[in-house]
Amino acid sequence: PLVKMSEISISVDPPTGLQPTEAPTQDGSPQQMAKLSPGGPQSSIFGHQRTPSMDFKELTKKDAQISLAMELDKLMKTMPEGQKHVVEQDFDGFKRLFGKFINETGPSVVWDKIEKLPQNAIQSYASLPHTEDKEAIRSMLDQLVVIKLNGGLGTSMGCSGPKS
Question: What is the C-alpha separation between 53 and 48, in angstroms, rounded?
Fold first, then answer.
C-alpha cells in the first residue's frame, strides 16, 4: 500500500525487486517506488539517493507548512474585510520565515553573538509606572515583549523564578 502526502509517495511494504518499479498514481502517471539496496530501502528523487528517514523528514516539513497555511487561512476568514490585505501580507511573510526556518540546516541562533542584558534591563513589576491613561497603557503594551522558556532552557540560561 502507498501513503500519499503532498506530491511524494512512499511505499509502506518493502519492494520485492532490486530495481525500482513504477506504479501508477491516482491520476494515471507513473511514480518511482522505493528500491531495495544493501543499506536498506532507498528512493531516488531528482537523481539523489534518499533514505526513508530523509523522506520522512521532508514529508514532515511539508506537512508542517501545509498545516500552517491551512490554519492561517482559517484565521484569515475571521478578519474584517478592511484588514484582510495587511494581515495577508503579514501571514505571507510569516509563512516565508517559517519555511526558511524548517528548511535551513545548522543552528538557528549563533549563541556566541548573544550578549547578556545590562544589570538594570529587567525591572520588577512594582517599579513600573502605574497609570489609568488608556493611551499610555497602549503605548507601554506596544513595547512589551513576552518570552516563554520551556523545558529547563531558562534555568540553563541563568534565569531564576517562573519563566513565563
Answer: 14
CA dihedral sign of residues 39, 26, 103, 69: negative
Q: What is the CB neighbour count within 10 angstroms for residue 55?
A: 19
- Within a 10 A sphere around the Cβ of 42, how many other Cβ atoms? 19
Cα separation, 163 vs 155, in Å, equals 8
Query: How far is Cα 22 from Cα 25, in angstroms, rounded to an integer?
Result: 9
Residue type, position 45, single letter? I
pLDDT digits (tens, 9 = 90+) for 82-132: 889 999 999 999 999 999 888 888 777 788 888 888 888 888 888 887 889
* Single pTM value for the model: 0.40
